[in-house]
Amino acid sequence: MIIGVLVLSALCAPKYEEASSYYDDVNDEYKKPSFINSDTLKFIPSTNLSPSEAVPVLVWDAVQKCPIIKPMVWGMIPPWTSGDYKSGSYTTHNCRIENVKESRLYSAPLTAGKRCVILCEGYYEWKSTVGKHKQPCFLYKAQSPGMKPENESHWSDGKWSKSQGWVGPSLTYLAGLYSAFESKKDSEPILSSTVITMRSSPAVSHIHHRMPAILSSPEVVKCREKKMATL
Fold this sequence. Notes:
The protein is mostly beta strands. The chain is about 10% helix and about 35% strand. It is built from four helices and 17 strands. It has helices spanning about 15-20, 105-110, 150-155, 215-225, and strands at about 5-10, 20-25, 30, 35, 45-50, 55-60, 65-75, 95, 115-120, 120-130, 135-140, 160, 165, 170-180, 190-200, 210, 215. The model is unreliable at about 225-230 (pLDDT under 50).
């Protein structure tokens, strides 16, 4: 079974900027990564984002030397794809960490340092119940007491400032890889991503035997600065 078939990414772009803000120790203040839409791919918030749709992705901008957020197709587009990439049927939205170094598709972006962080409020997994029935379970990063990432008002009530950064619900940071697909019909490369998956931790193994590789905030900073030499 493919894990995380749906993710909850229902916030507007400015809220993702605030919630993924980072501390700049040089200037002694918190900063927000800019959310940059493209002409060919735009992020549309949804409570049920599925593979092939655009998801908000945090990457390191080597030119500006800062993190930015870009919309990317969820599901890495193979570079050998011919014709319209939208007509393809890919199962590339998840990448097993055990095989990433040997993968024909994922080893190249891994070697090139194209690591990224898929931003979401959480993801859905299906737990088998009696017979063939399955129950959807909403999973997310540990929150401060009283915070519920599925509660829209908690995000609306959250506050951001240069002195404190984001104070509110926490995003769930999914480790991933990305690539740029050169399309003849589009004016710029199409960015696409995949979520790295691993064996489930004891906390969620009763729901499913696989889970996304979820990053904590300090690890997100390391990923932004491309200090993660190996997985």
